[in-house]
Amino acid sequence: MSWGFLRDLLSGVNKYSTGIGRIWVAVVFIFRLLVYIAAAENIWKYEHDEFECNIKQPGCENVCFDHFFPVSHIRLWALQLIMVSTPSLLVVFHVAYRENREKHHNQKLYKSPGEIDGGLLCTYLISLILKTGFEIVFLVLFYKLYNGFKVPRLVKCDIRPCPNTVDCYISKPTEKMIFICFLVATSCLCIVLNLSELSYLIFKHSIK
To answer: Residue 188: is its pLDDT beyond 90?
Structure first.
């Protein structure tokens, strides 16, 4: 798929973000989106074809793969990237609403439509809470679906139509493990940045 829309969204949000928010945008764009497109997507590209079991019973390999990988890692990461970026649209829409309101009234209603204050501050805080919530939900989802963040070399499967317990082998487990750790670490970093920005804004405006 084309990720141009997400790049444009992040670029638009960057104009209205605080310093910490700009760091978040850089982390998402460089360490998550570009890594996903350039490397991670190719590693899991043929995960089903490269999943092998030591038996040729029709259907056995398919049900074992479905059991151990109920949702593709790469599709779940794509969904995570979209979901954690989408709340930023709230800020962009709110700024557009302010600009349209000034244009409609033909007068200056705000010091700056993109300045984080008043209603825009509430919208910005809500977007930060949503982004943090989505990050945590997806980390928990990954952990539950795959029984942790490790990629085993060998998995044992005894699901029908397999006639007995069979050994199945996952391709490139070490390489996949490295990328999983990297993407989980960047997700945790984004959570820290979101919470830091949330605390900063609340502290700054409570003083005012």
So the answer is: yes
Count up the domains in the chain and report the number.
1
Burial (CB < 10 A; 0-12, 13-18, 19+), residue 129, is middle
User: What's the rounded Cα separation, in Å, for the pair 36 and 149?
Assistant: 17
In this structure, which amino acid lies at residue 63?
A: V
Give the domain range for residue 8.
3-207
pTM metric for this prediction:
0.82
**What span, in angstroms and rounded, lies between the C-alpha atoms of 88 and 76?**
20
Residue matched to tokens 């700054």: 204
Spell out a b/e string for 94-109, using b for 16 or more CB atoms within 10 Å of the CB, else e.
Answer: bbeebeeeeeeeeeee
Q: Which CATH number does the domain housing residue 39 bear?
A: 1.20.1440.80
Furthest CA-CA distance within the chain: 77
* Contacts (Cβ under 8 Å, ≥6 apart) of 10: 25, 28, 29, 33, 85, 88
How much is the pLDDT for 69?
Answer: 83
